[in-house]
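Hi D.,

Good news: the full-assembly prediction came through. Inputs first.
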Amino acid sequence: MSIIEVTDLNLFYGERQALFNVNISIEDKSITALIGPSGCGKSTFLRTLNRMNDMIPGVTITGTVEVAGNNIYEDNIDVEVLRKNIGMVFQQPNPFPKSIYDNIAFGPRLHGITNRSELDGIVETSLKAAVLWDEVKDVLKKPAYSLSGGQQQRLCIARALAVNPQILLMDEPTSALDPISTAKIEELLVELKKKYTIVIVTHNMQQAARISGVTAFFLNGYLIESGETDKIFTAPNDPRTEDYITGRFG
Amino acid sequence: MSIIEVTDLNLFYGERQALFNVNISIEDKSITALIGPSGCGKSTFLRTLNRMNDMIPGVTITGTVEVAGNNIYEDNIDVEVLRKNIGMVFQQPNPFPKSIYDNIAFGPRLHGITNRSELDGIVETSLKAAVLWDEVKDVLKKPAYSLSGGQQQRLCIARALAVNPQILLMDEPTSALDPISTAKIEELLVELKKKYTIVIVTHNMQQAARISGVTAFFLNGYLIESGETDKIFTAPNDPRTEDYITGRFG
Amino acid sequence: MSSGRLQLRKTMDKLSKAVFFLATSFGIIALAILLYNIISQGIGWLDWQFLTSFPSRFPEKAGVKPALIGSLWVIGFTAPVAFVVGLGTALYLEEYAQKGRFSRLIQININNLAGVPSIVFGILGLGLFVKNLGLGRSILSAALTMALLILPIIVVASQEALRSVPQHLRNASYALGATKWQTIWRVVLPAAFPSILTGVILAVSRAIGETAPLVVVGAVGFMSFVPNSPFDLFTVLPIQIFHWTARPQEEFRYIAAAAIMVLLAVLFTLNALAVYLRNKYQKRF
Amino acid sequence: GCGSANKPAEQGNNKPAAEAPKLSGTIKADGSSTVGPITEAVAEEFKKANPGVQVTVGISGTGGGFKKFTAGETDINDASRKIKDAEKKAAEEKKIEYIELEIAKDGIAVVVNKENTFVDKLTVAELKKIWEPDSKVKKWSEVRPGWPDQEIKLYGPGTDSGTFDYFTEAINGKEKASRKDYTASEDDNTLVKGVSGDKGGLGYFGYAYYEENKDKLKLVPIDNGDGKALAPNIGNIKDGTYKPLSRPLFIYVSKASLQRPEVKAFIKFYIENAPKLVKEVGYVPLDEPKYKELLTKIQ
Amino acid sequence: MTNNQPIVAKKTKNKRDFGIRSFLLLCASVSILTTVGIVFELLFETINFFREVSLFDFLTDTEWSPTFQDKHFGILTLLSGSFLITLGASLVALPFGLATAIYLSEYAPDRVRRTIKPILEILAGVPTIVYGFFALTFVTPIIRAIFPTAGVFNALSASIVVGIMILPMVASLSEDAMVAVPRSLRDGAYALGATKMEVATKVVVPAGLSGIIASFVLALSRAIGETMIVTIAAGATPKLTLNPLESVQTMTAYIVQVSLGDIQHGTIEYRTLFAVGMTLFLLTLLINIIAQWITRRYREEY
Ligand SMILES: Nc1ncnc2c1ncn2[C@@H]1O[C@H](COP(=O)(O)OP(=O)(O)OP(=O)(O)O)[C@@H](O)[C@H]1O
Ligand SMILES: Nc1ncnc2c1ncn2[C@@H]1O[C@H](COP(=O)(O)OP(=O)(O)OP(=O)(O)O)[C@@H](O)[C@H]1O
Ligand SMILES: [Mg+2]
Ligand SMILES: [Mg+2]
Ligand SMILES: O=P([O-])([O-])[O-]
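Then the structure:
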């Protein structure tokens, strides 16, 4: 069953078109990897799925994005609910200038959890899930900025998990991580897939191959092709996909 | 011949020690890869090589770092000359809030180049070297912030190349890049190695294996071991190195 | 997480937009009423003759020439002096000084000076510039006094502006071999410029409307000639306005209103450049 | 009268005009904000005849003005009271000699709210009862039996003004002796607002401010104890029959400055034109002969 | 493209950097010299004042009447006036200013922001005497219609208008602080399902707090120092009261009244001006030291 259904999506930054006629359907409880060269529109596309592009002035969109059967670009859509249920981790870590604890508790507090022990529980679970707990459990009150780049990124993943979303959008979440942390995050994603739908942008072909069920290849704003990961990596339909994937090793 | 010679280096963030007794010597005209889990001190170590840690309040250092035979932590060292000759690319892209052109021209202008056509030439060469020219040649006057994450990172690489350094420090320069751009940057590094010394932090084992002659493995602030890349990846001396390297595939 | 709570949050959000908008309107409306009051009284009296005449006991003959020129003289010296010293202080505190006792001492000083009543600056200016430095009751004394008065505004605004420039931009510049000053001049100041200008706008606005310290320093109430050197006696618009409003005859209140319009026009012209530059340089990171 | 007052003014205008090219220099006047407008008016006219002479008029108050005057900073001091002993001493120390010229009169008007129907006059004793330092008067009925049981709201000038000094001296017998629980303001126009906005209001300030706000205020005739209540007007302020609330206004001229031809010309011009100009700015000129006397004083 | 310069060079004496540093230090010293100058100007007459008036009376007397024949020197009276005006002004300027800043930085389209901000800044340049009459002729009648017991001169009217005067200081400087908050932080919060208001109040305001507090401090300092509005709209009546509907006098208004009025120099009345100035100076100093102490504590704890 598909949970996200994108039809004829075009996106413009002012005059400049960044996405051209994208059509894709994303399965529930699966991991979809978005690949493609830098600047091809992966991040842009990802942000259309939870309407984060609303924040950028001058962005216009045509076409529809249906999530669980509703076009999220309709006027009467509640973007806050949408975004709560569709978590997002960005390409660059962006912790709030608050303590580690308050970063994680931020989302749950927004959505009404004030009970201290409940929050403590969420903070611990989320940090553990993002493989950060052991490193920070003694310094939860310290500012998030004193963490290393990779730690900050894991913090942001923990923060996204803390609101318990149904879909997770991740923009190169492991590009700043070392192999061990990466492996743990990947494990986590595979685990999460059982309950959540995950869309992940990655530059790491092996990562896409290891964890995703479906891979979508973008080029210059076009979705060139998408399909089962195995197939895309072994026998793509489009020569450009093949060029790109093999280019890695060329 | 070794161009950088680090002896008994300790570094403290205030009370907290982040590097312990690091000893390493880095060959001229080579690529040295620094690997290790997130938070182990790779970025910290890299910054000691061009005294960027001077910028962080509360940092104290003991031991010596000799570059071309001079201890750069001596009082009478000219840090500006040092940094001009030791270029740096950061973990997160940090373009100036200026146009693409002005970002690249920034360094040359600092060092006295004002001739317009000379600057034009440097901008073009540097952008080409960082595999960004084709994407931006028509929009050189646009703000650097309107580029995608990967484009921004390549811009920062181009900016570092524009001042024509002799040593290049790179903190995960390709983690935000797609495979094709990554491959091109790697090619560039291999090319640059002929004339320059390169120290690169990477989480990508294959990358380290592909391009570096020497690999150094950090853990919890200690330099566990360093040596020829082939050796480190196939028969490391320390079991912890082995654990880490194989952990990737475990 | 009941939908009731969500509903509440949504309502709060909508409400807050209205509240924030109304709060903004509060200032705008206050200004509109003020301007309406001033303009409706003064507009009939504001003409070329008013700008080019000397004060007179007959309201219809009176003008603001010496006060207008005096104000321009004073602000012409005050603004650059305060800008340079203020920005210099901020740069020293934020970029150069060790965060220790000395910089805290300066900081406390600055915050404290912000609360010293303007007339006390007048007393200082009288003692320091008029008497000790022997500048006399001149434009220069007044301008320097005013510069000290508005200094804290510029310093504090500039400090905040410098502080909000992200560290990674500085790092990028240092890594290219820039000196401290090059980094400040080419990276930090351009990024901080818009907020620094806000401080300048607020400070100049204050300087141009002040009366009391200038009276102490020696602005005269009436003069029938125009100053033509920084060592001349002078008067300024707010003093002229002040004296006119104190007259018993109602007509003087109207020409006071006209003089206020002149003052605001001067202020807005001076600010226009700063506002233009601020808009030009303002970027979101 | 008006007609005759104009004559010397015209003479004054014409004669120096012929000499004008000879005169140049700067004349500095400062002092009382009450007297300032007169000096400004004189300066304005003088300038027409003597464009080469630059006159400035500062308004730092009588005391502030004397401070500069006795330090030798100014040529002329406007004063709404006579020079005080301490100021005399200061002048002596600096060897500043001066002459005192009374150039106009000002009346202090006592006013009540326009809607006040019962106050027909006030005696000096009643004023004292209201304003004396330990006065407990809170209601109009306590001022004079038969007046309503309405609260009395007092307005007066700031305690550092010449008007306050003069009023307290004239009514309460001692300068600055006054009850304190009244509403004070530095600005006479503001006092006008106060009394005209307050039904039970009573206040005092310069006569000119009453003149300009006749329609908003009710003027109270003052009974000097001789049974004749007089409301101030130009006539009775001038001839001094409006008692005790009419006061003289002065200028003080430094003798050394008076040696300078432009200052001398200016003072002469001042005296000759005072009758007309004093009136134009809202005060009361003296009798003609008094000005003649002044002219001889500066020779 | 090869670079054959030595990588490491000895520092050459950089005269320019030294010059710049010295110049900036000189600029920074101006504020200290100013303070020294002010203390110097105030100290002499303050000492003379306290030779005649005991500190005890100064701090405990409940009446302030140096310019009357029956003199009292209770500074509390003026303090209460300053306190009322400053409190009232901050109740107007801080919430309205902050809300305006939030509206401009988070809600208003760019064009609106660029227009409204300079317009509001005009408010900072209106001469205070104009505000004074605005308070007296516009605000006071409204207040008296609502509170019939209010006097023609009252602290409420003055403090509201002082609040309006300092509003642009809060609004403009806070807005700058908020605009400087990186967009990525906002994105982080939006992605968690935060509403615009939550992003503004829970992320942007805390992230810009240092600038916002600085704007508050500047604005309140200006309120404490304000004279003309108070003189005109609140009367010149020193009164020990916390009732905003009564007429009051502030320390600064008193200083202006005395220094511009007909006071003989060298008298005790004249000296009060210096004593009051010094009191105000020490008071703001104390407040500043406490404020700095608090912010330092706060910043460390995060
Ligand atoms: N400015 C700082 N103040 C205090 N501690 C810091 C600071 N910067 C880094 N650290 C700490 O020093 C340690 C090493 O950090 P560093 O940034 O060098 O790690 P790294 O190896 O580069 O990690 P990553 O791969 O995640 O970038 C970490 O534990 C980090 O929390
Ligand atoms: N805010 C913006 N305004 C204008 N153009 C933009 C903006 N953001 C992105 N673009 C442009 O849109 C195109 C797609 O950008 P996007 O960030 O989606 O690329 P990406 O595939 O995520 O690249 P990367 O792998 O480098 O992150 C790029 O050419 C980029 O320059
Ligand atoms: Mg991207
Ligand atoms: Mg790092
Ligand atoms: O200004 P005065 O001295 O006349 O009150």
